[in-house]
Design brief:
The protein is mainly alpha-helical and about 220 residues long. The protein folds into 2 domains: about 110 residues, Serine Threonine Protein Phosphatase 5, Tetratricopeptide repeat; about 90 residues, Tetratricopeptide repeat domain (Serine Threonine Protein Phosphatase 5, Tetratricopeptide repeat, Alpha Horseshoe), CATH 1.25.40. Helices cover about 60% and strands about 0% of the residues.
Length: about 220
C-alpha cells in the first residue's frame, strides 16, 4: 500500500519467490493482491518460478493462488519437469487436479488425465534415475562456477527425486555456508546428521554453521 515495487529482484528472486519458499500463503495473497507478477523472474536470478517452488514444497494453497493469478503452468524447472509432473511424482493428487486444467498436454504422457499423469510418473523409474544424475551434474557445475544459490536450488530439486540422500543435504549445506547463510546451513546439516548419524561430514558441516552463527 506504500507504493513499494513488489517485483524487485534479489539473490533468491522476488518477494513472491521468498514467500512461496517459506510456505507463506498469506504473504503470497497480499503480494498478488498488489499485482505481483505470478510468473516473475522466469529467466532471472532464481531460475525457477514461484509455481515450481510451490509444486516442489507441496504448498497447495499457494499453488491455488498462483494459478488463479495466471501463473504459467507450462514453464519447466531446470530438470525439464512441468509443475504438474513434480506434484504427481510426490503423489499430491490435489495439486495435480489444480494444475491439470492449466497445463498443456505433455506428449509422452499417453493418458492425459489426472490418474494417467500420476501413473505415468510412477512408471518412469529409469527416467528418474537419469534426471537425478543430471541434477547432480548441474549442481556440481553451478557450485564450481561459484553460483552457490543456483547449486542449492538444484540440490533441492535433486532431493525431491531422492529424499533419503544425505550427501545431497550435505552438499546443499555447503552451498549455504558459501553464501554466508548459517541458519539454512545448520538446518541442512542437522537434517543430514539425523538421516545419517555419526557421519563426520555432517558433523563438520554442523560445526562450521554453528561457528558462522556466532560471528
Amino acid at each position: 500500500s506504500s507504493g513499494a515495487y513488489v517485483d524487485a529482484l534479489h539473490l533468491g528472486g522476488t518477494a513472491l519467490h521468498s514467500a512461496a519458499r517459506d510456505g507463506r500463503d498469506d504473504i503470497v495473497k497480499v503480494l498478488l493482491d498488489h499485482h505481483a507478477d505470478a510468473g516473475a523472474d522466469v529467466d532471472g536470478n532464481c531460475k525457477e518460478t514461484p509455481l515450481i517452488i510451490a509444486a516442489i514444497s507441496g504448498s497447495t494453497e499457494i499453488l491455488k493462488c498462483l494459478v488463479l493469478a495466471g501463473a504459467d503452468a507450462n514453464v519447466p524447472d531446470s530438470l525439464g519437469r512441468a509443475p504438474i509432473e513434480i506434484a504427481a511424482r510426490s503423489g499430491r493428487r490435489e495439486d495435480v487436479e489444480i494444475l491439470f486444467p492449466v497445463t498443456s498436454r505433455i506428449p509422452n504422457v499417453r493418458d492425459w488425465s489426472v490418474d494417467g499423469i500420476i501413473r505415468h510418473v510412477k512408471s518412469v523409474r529409469p527416467v528418474k534415475k537419469a534426471m537425478l544424475t543430471s541434477a547432480k551434474s548441474k549442481a556440481h557445475e553451478a557450485f564450481k562456477n561459484g553460483n552457490y544459490y543456483l547449486a542449492a536450488r538444484i540440490y533441492k530439486e535433486a532431493m525431491a527425486l531422492d529424499p533419503g540422500n544425505a550427501t545431497l543435504l550435505s552438499n546443499r549445506s555447503l552451498c549455504w555456508l558459501r553464501l554466508g547463510d548459517a541458519k539454512n546451513a545448520l538446518n541442512d546439516a542437522q537434517a543430514c546428521s539425523m538421516m545419517r548419524p555419526g557421519w563426520p561430514k555432517a558433523s563438520y558441516r554442523q560445526g562450521t554453521a554453528l561457528m558462522l552463527l556466532k560471528v
